[in-house]
Amino acid sequence: MSEQKLVLSDPATGKQCELPVRKGTHGPAVADIGSLYREHAMFTYDPGFVSTASCRSDITYIDGNQGILLYRGYPIEQLAEKSNFIEVAYLLLYGELPTQTQLDTFNHSIRYHTMIHESLRDFFRGFHYDAHPMAMLTGVVGSLSAFYNAAQDTRNKDDQEIFAHRMIAKIPTIAACAYKHSIGQPFVYPRNDLDYASNLLHMLFAVPAETYEVDPVAAQALDMLFILHADHEQNASTSTVRLAGSSGTNPYAAISAGVACLWGPAHGGANEAVLNMLEQIGDVKQIPQYIAKAKDKNDAFRLMGFGHRVYKNYDPRATVIRGMCHKILQRLGKENDPLFELALELEQIALNDEYFKEKKLYPNVDFYSGIIYKALGLPTNMFTVMFAIARTVGWVAHWIEMTNDPEQRIGRPRQIYTGAAQRDYLDPAQRD
Ligand code: CMC
């Protein structure tokens, strides 16, 4: 705690209130308003938590003005270039890059928790064939809580670790079952000899009638996308996991709440929405018409994949994906993908448009990720599921951090009440 204080004065009473100011490793100073209600009977009002730090965290740092993203202090660009998803998962969970032995042990544990209970597989039969895979994911992830019971002690370090490993290992299996169910193909069991991304591709695309060779280029692309999506500090779904978890609920149920939140088009659902939008635009000639729609306040249309609550500069993840998109499409023999060309053109036109410049709206992580997922052969409705697989690591890391934080209390926001003033009940005959 620093000596700096924020002093507020109430003109009505003339009373002054001194708020201590906290400082993190990086980022703006934070006024600690914890005593405001207790000592001054006042709340703060901040819809969407634009100026509110809801917790302390050691996991991820974002500088939205500079376009910087750090996992445990390491720049995302370095991790995307030099690391792999399992190593990044270890880093996010445990705080440090692993030694070779630590990495081997972690990798082994994740590979050997990939199977799901046979009864859980049966749950999928209850879903109609056209259920959205995110709907299935929300339900089935929540159902893990029925298999790994609430009797566990959420503060027990061993229980936390086994929860983390199980969740990270099983989410690709559940995701692949959701996909197979939606296309009417048999579920494919995981293969523990394969790395994380290759195993997922195997479960998604193999069929019992044929041998399936995982394309290493596809696996590498997926692994890198997972690194970029693994965590993003207190985003809506992570905050949802923290809020749900703050009541002490079963941690698998808390993760399911995060999946539900991620689904929305303003959050992880944007990658699906971008592809739908590009298909709707269809041709570069139509771009000006859609840019005009995006700027029209009477039109609900927004340029999907553009803008971010925190980034007021290029999203560093988008920079990495954009560069990678060329390479991957070329290596997969899909370099002339018309949607990619359309996306590049749309990006250029928007970046040079006064409205987008003035509001600092830049492409975000979802602008290009869908193009890669499409090139890998995934249907549009699976894009957000892929995001959920990667973000599971972040959700789990935040749930553990929150559970072990001695300052943690149940999340319970307050409100400005704007409803009717207190009044007395009248019998029906007395009401006009
Ligand atoms: N197209 C057109 N106008 C936009 C857009 C957009 N994509 N994004 C923001 N604006 C305008 C918005 O209308 C507002 O204008 P005004 O000040 O005149 O009212 C201004 O820019 C600020 O926007 P906001 O909605 O107040 O900003 P926010 O921080 O509440 O919302 C956002 C951030 C990501 C929800 C929003 O930019 C958006 O809806 N983008 C499209 C959806 C999208 O790509 N989401 C993925 C986010 S990145 C992946 C993830 O982390 O989940």
Automatic annotation (TrEMBL):
Record key words, sorted: Acyltransferase, Transferase, Tricarboxylic acid cycle
NCBIfam families per UniProt: cit_synth_I, PRK05614.1
InterPro entries: Citrate_synth-like_lrg_a-sub, Citrate_synth-like_sm_a-sub, Citrate_synthase, Citrate_synthase_AS, Citrate_synthase_bac-typ, Citrate_synthase_sf, Citrate_synthase_typ-I
Organism of origin: Candidatus Macondimonas diazotrophica
Similarity comment: Belongs to the citrate synthase family.
Catalytic residue list: 308, 366
Catalytic activities: oxaloacetate + acetyl-CoA + H2O = citrate + CoA + H(+)
Official protein name in the record: Citrate synthase
GO cellular component entries: cytoplasm
Molecular function in Gene Ontology: citrate synthase activity
Entry-linked Pfam families: Citrate_synt
One BP annotation, GO: tricarboxylic acid cycle
Annotated pathway: Carbohydrate metabolism; tricarboxylic acid cycle; isocitrate from oxaloacetate: step 1/2
Keyword Transferase part of the UniProt annotation: yes
